Amino acid sequence: MTGTPVAVGIDVGGTKLTACSLDANASILVRARTRSPVGDPELLLDEIARLAAEVGDGLPVGVGVPGPVSRAGVISHAPNLDVTGLDVGAGLTARLGRRPAVTNDASAALVGEHAVGAATGHDHVVMLTVGTGVGGAVLVDGALLEGASGHAGELGHVLADPGGPVCGCGAVGCLEAVASGTAMTRRARELVAAGRPTLLAQADKIDGHALDEAARAGDEVARTIRREAGEHLGRAAASLVNVFDPSLVLLGGGAGVNAAGDLLPPMQQVMRERLAGFARPIPPIVVASLGDDAGMIGAGLLALRASGQKP
Amino acid sequence: MTGTPVAVGIDVGGTKLTACSLDANASILVRARTRSPVGDPELLLDEIARLAAEVGDGLPVGVGVPGPVSRAGVISHAPNLDVTGLDVGAGLTARLGRRPAVTNDASAALVGEHAVGAATGHDHVVMLTVGTGVGGAVLVDGALLEGASGHAGELGHVLADPGGPVCGCGAVGCLEAVASGTAMTRRARELVAAGRPTLLAQADKIDGHALDEAARAGDEVARTIRREAGEHLGRAAASLVNVFDPSLVLLGGGAGVNAAGDLLPPMQQVMRERLAGFARPIPPIVVASLGDDAGMIGAGLLALRASGQKP
């Protein structure tokens, strides 16, 4: 059964743009994708507008972008796209003839998971996304946490270890600096350079894929790297449960979902240990279920809501 | 000019109960206080009810309590009062003949500061209260952050140092374990025991008062203890700004206000350093301005709102 298209959702990633049209039940009707133009903001906006027209010309458009976005729709900085200060809201309004809903990709993913994924039925949710970096989004009473200037939810930059490595943001010991995909592969390279016996030493390139293969083969170094990242995520999750008192913690992002088998058990254990002294219920940690589709579904739903329609 | 009393606010502390009646402008009309009965829940409820009748018989009553409170008004554990699982909501309803608004003391203080104190005009606020422990409260779009079960805002239990001391909650390295009044006096005792030259070695008792006197006299050890606590508070504030994107960070609590001269400069500096890499505005940190009155004023305002009246 195919519904009537009511909105377009677009997920802007560092490597690809994916788009879809949605019906009123948030089911995907038509899909399209293309490679992300990196370092060329005008072409990026052109391609987003082209995909939007391709999957649902004239419908409300929502866009999830990989970086902090102001309430007005300006990306302050998205290193994966090599853009800074890009006014996505104005740029797409000019191209589409209507104002898009622009949000952070993690926020879009959480809206998608809340509507039709792993967070259905939960109105207080903390989502941690582990990919190239660590991102996040928070649902408070069913609404996305936005903050005074629209930049709330930068969960990758909570303190994880004041004696830890310097983060890409310049601060010492952020969660992202010890638990992102990038942090895990950097740690792998350090351990290979230190001569630790590991399958990773034989990899052509020590990247997320090599770490994944080594972990699957039972390599102790690879498993330890993931376990330690999971422990950091567990400590951060405990902090965030103390702060937000959610009924659910969601683990998402490419690396987060992919490595969930190794990340989740230590994350659960450490979070539970840190929360054992409180009378409050301890929320479960579950893995995001919509995969790469979460962001575009959520972006489409946000467009629909911004247009005054339900859901 | 004296207004008409519209609500009663009561702050339940570990040493004293303070109560007041408020007019519609949140001005205090009548005050009362008594010593807190510790370890006797029935007497505690009796005394709260007696103070309420004394300052404003028959008015809506709001109570701020020193510990986590469920949405139903049950204190899970308040070590300073030596009570566990106390149903303040039901106990006071029986005594007052009407349901009180029961909230955490830090949340009550933030509501007071937001209405008539240092947070006026800010609808996104993170408040850290430094006293015997470290507490906190958060305002999101003008509303108190409550969470799924009413226990949100336990900001004293965010991770400050994974290699740090064990917190009263049982977890390692919580903010409370390194930056509370208790943590500062413990550190003072450690340094005196280690033979560090300090005025604190001559104090009859090494407590918050002795630390305060030594710091005022320019004692290096006392100043260093406060500076290090301020740095921890600054790292935590940076994490919380990344999470909430507030327009204001508020420093409150007895020790927080009292030691603000020593705590605030390192707290500001460390927070700013950690946030320098982000395009987002960096909020100021200001000191709470209502002192001990904040909690009872906020509790009274919450009672007024719960009764369906404004503000």
Question: Could you please describe the fold and organization of this structure?
Answer:
The structure is a homodimer of 311-residue chains. Chain A is of the alpha/beta class and 311 residues long. Helices cover 40% and strands 20% of the residues of chain A. Chain A contains ten helices and twelve strands. Chain A has a five-stranded mixed β-sheet with strand order 3-2-1-4-7. Chain A has a five-stranded mixed β-sheet with strand order 10-9-8-11-12, with helices on both faces. In chain A, strands 5-6 form a two-stranded antiparallel ribbon. In chain A, helix 1 packs across helix 2 and helix 7 packs across helix 9. The longest helix of chain A has 25 residues. The model of chain A has no long low-confidence stretch (mean pLDDT 94). The interface between A and B is large, with 53 and 53 residues.
